[in-house]
Amino acid sequence: MVKAVGSQYRYNPLGLEFAGNWWSHGRILGHQGMYTEPDDKHIDVLILWGSNAYVSHQIQHARPTIRAMSESTDKMVISVDPRLSETARMADLHIMLRPGSDALFLRGLISLIVARKWQDQAYLDTWCSDWPRAKTWFENFDYENAFSVCRVPMAQAEKFARILTTKTWGVHQDLGIFCGRHNTLNSYLLLTLMAVTGNLEIKGNRSLDAWSWKGPAGDERDENIWRTVETGRFPVCGVYPTGVMAKEILSDREDRLRILFTSMANPARSWPDSQEMAKALERLELHVVIDIVMTETAEKADYVLPGKTGFEAYQWSTFQVTTPEIGCFMKHPVIEQIGERKENGRIWMDIMRAMGYVPEMDKKMYQKAADSVKQKNSAFFMASFLGYMKKHLDQKDCATLMLVDALSRPEALGSVSRAFLRAALATSPISDRGIVERAGFGPSGICKFLGKFGKTKKLAQLSTMDNVFWAADENPSGVICGYANPDPVEFAREHIFYPDHKIRLYDDTVNAHIGDITPDKESALLDSEEKYPMVLSAGNHADGGDNTSMRNPDTYQYRKPFTILVNPQDAFLLKIIDGEEVLLSTRAGSITAPVEYSFKARRGCCLIPHQYGLKSGRGTYGSGANMLTRSEDIDIITGNPFIRFVPCRIDKMNSQTAANAR
Ligand SMILES: Nc1nc2c(c(=O)[nH]1)N[C@H]1C(S)=C(S)[C@@H](COP(=O)(O)OP(=O)(O)OC[C@H]3O[C@@H](n4cnc5c(=O)[nH]c(N)nc54)[C@H](O)[C@@H]3O)O[C@H]1N2
Ligand SMILES: Nc1nc2c(c(=O)[nH]1)N[C@H]1C(S)=C(S)[C@@H](COP(=O)(O)OP(=O)(O)OC[C@H]3O[C@@H](n4cnc5c(=O)[nH]c(N)nc54)[C@H](O)[C@@H]3O)O[C@H]1N2
Ligand SMILES: [Mo]
Q1: Dihedral through CA 87, CA 92, CA 98, CA 102, nearest 10?
Q2: Cα of 50 to ligand 1 centre, how many Å?
Q3: Least crowded by CB within 10 Å, which of 146, 162, 196, 461?
Q4: What does pTM read for this prediction?
């Protein structure tokens, strides 16, 4: 849709969590659409860095995996988290660093490793083309002082460094690092640590094979990539930082953002700075929202279009979370459609057709699409389709839409989502690399025979991907549709996108900023807050819900009420009793909420959950975390926000503060 209307501006929550991480993959591995995760079946040590996976389930079978590794005598779990999270409680080693000090800690750790000559030099010599240049960032660096600023005892840092350099380890990084201070450098340095210890790609941490889609390569140094007009920001993997969207709408420039299409997102609640976002959404000249409920965002729209719920629609997912297995999931509708709702994709398709972006082809093509579904063999249809496109080059920008349109018609797959999966598989980066073949997929019928000849090889490949599609479609609980390359050297070569298949650890942008990550500068900044002396983790992904998707107040009787988690010792000094209503303020605004005494909060820090503050027919329960975040507080490199590090203060309520809060 974005491409069809001739824009490049795509905003979604990936520009709020992954931007720094993907950018770093782009620089180090040569492609932004990469994502490394722990190779959990082959590691001795599982590190959860800024991740509360025991609650957020962001790794495969999170609870059994963490429990088994923690209980095993020869394996271990390490948590790097400022607070005693549920995951940290399960860990064999808990590095309880000061919030917001990850970049400094990582620079210190790598420097310690370099100073002791503990790096995996053989790995660096084989796989890295510019280590001597990057190494200078870690030489003569005062790591002892750095650890002291991070509040990590020297002996613990040393023990950690020894584990990192002698064991095979894998790390899952999450919002603590993605949404903290210096989040881009956090991810960059963590990838560097993997490389320096020989744990990147070849063992320990593996890039996932995004099985149906690999995001656009993306590199802001390419001048064809648009910058935002007001804030001058670039996209990562094609997605712009959520933190600047409101400013792009509120800009005075002629070419500001004027029209917005929103689907499956609630920026008014979920993206930084709810107050500013509300103003921005009011100002839009056209805003169309597709959702399944009347959200805070939908309330401000010109048109609200009812999408089918997940119960009524086909939906598929591309999240692969482990190696070597690559899963494929196609969920079918489980109830009859209610009312006039339409599939999200169908709504987009209808809008784009009305706008003239889905040209009609000859009737024959639609017949061939329908036949390809009946025969479960799309190879010949695809070949005719390509032939058709060759004759209609003026329509080439609409090709994907036309393909999905043909496959989604009632006489074919009958669903845009299903058709899109079929089309995505046809161009999938996992086809033709032996990945699906390792899981037993191959061409069938005549395509198998034709596959033996040079020119018709493509038909065999399309037939193989057909078989993947139908296996997924017929097994709604999911199928393993591929296995990553078992040969570590080949695997690494496949996942390093520079022509020489060597990683790059030196980068000019990083070089321009890493000099600021010193014990002196960081300690001055971390201690500079007088008015807001505490740190708020604004919007923990706690176990009382899943993002903003549980809105019905009836569910609150089964969930924890909305509270501010405060360490009892802090509460004692503030003279606040458990359950007392207090005023929590940041530079963005204030909310009132009851305090909950909890040792899950580190001293000097407090937490509020992400999933509250949602309007419903019976009022609003709790407050949205983004009432307390600002769109200015974003990473200097990629614009990813600091929602895990919000300077704040807690005040006792008296009649005056209570009046101000109202
Ligand atoms: N139950 C439940 N599960 C969910 C979700 C949900 O809402 N509820 N949401 C899903 C989504 S969309 C996501 S993105 C994931 C998020 O999953 P997680 O990232 O695991 O979520 P959080 O617990 O919010 O944050 C992770 C940890 O970062 C720590 N942290 C805070 N500041 C710092 C810091 O400066 N440094 C370090 N190293 N750590 C820090 C916090 O203490 C916290 O324990 O969860 C997913 N799963
Ligand atoms: N302060 C703060 N802000 C945060 C976070 C935080 O920790 N702190 N976490 C961030 C993270 S990691 C994420 S992922 C985002 C999540 O924030 P959002 O992207 O807003 O995601 P959700 O709340 O999961 O759901 C978005 C919308 O999708 C709608 N929806 C559900 N099913 C369907 C469907 O089938 N069709 C359509 N059209 N709509 C549907 C829901 O009703 C909901 O309104 O929030 C981010 N914002
Ligand atoms: Mo997320």
Answers
A1: -90
A2: 7
A3: 162
A4: 0.95
